[in-house]
Design a protein that fits this description.
4-stranded antiparallel beta sheet, binds iron/sulfur cluster, alpha+beta, 75 residues, Alpha-Beta Plaits
C-alpha cells in the first residue's frame, strides 16, 4: 500500500500535482486549493491509502509541489 498525505491549508492551487496524477488530485472550485481525492481530514492533514501502482505518479506530484506539502510513502 501507499500512503499519501497533504497539508491542505498550505496549498497554493498551482495544479502541479494534478498534472502528475489527475485521478488523485483535483483543484476545488470552492477555494482554489487542491483536494486529495478520497482523503480523510485529521487536523488539517488529509490522508489516503492507495494501491502500489499509484506510487510513481504521486511521488512525482510530491516532487512537483512547490510548497512541499505532499508526502508519499510505501507502507
Ligand atoms: S502541487 Fe502542492 S501547492 Fe500545487 S496544487 Fe498540488 S498540493 Fe497545492
Amino acid at each position: 500500500m501507499v500512503q499519501i498525505i497533504q497539508q491542505r491549508e498550505k496549498c497554493i492551487g498551482c495544479n502541479a500535482c494534478v498534472e502528475a496524477a489527475d485521478y488523485r488530485w483535483r483543484v476545488s472550485r470552492r477555494d482554489g486549493k487542491c483536494t486529495l481525492v478520497n482523503g480523510v481530514n485529521k487536523r488539517g492533514f488529509y490522508r489516503v491509502l492507495v494501491d502500489d501502482h499509484e506510487y510513481e505518479d504521486n511521488l512525482q506530484a510530491a516532487r512537483n509541489c512547490p510548497v512541499r506539502i505532499i508526502q508519499v510513502q510505501k507502507i
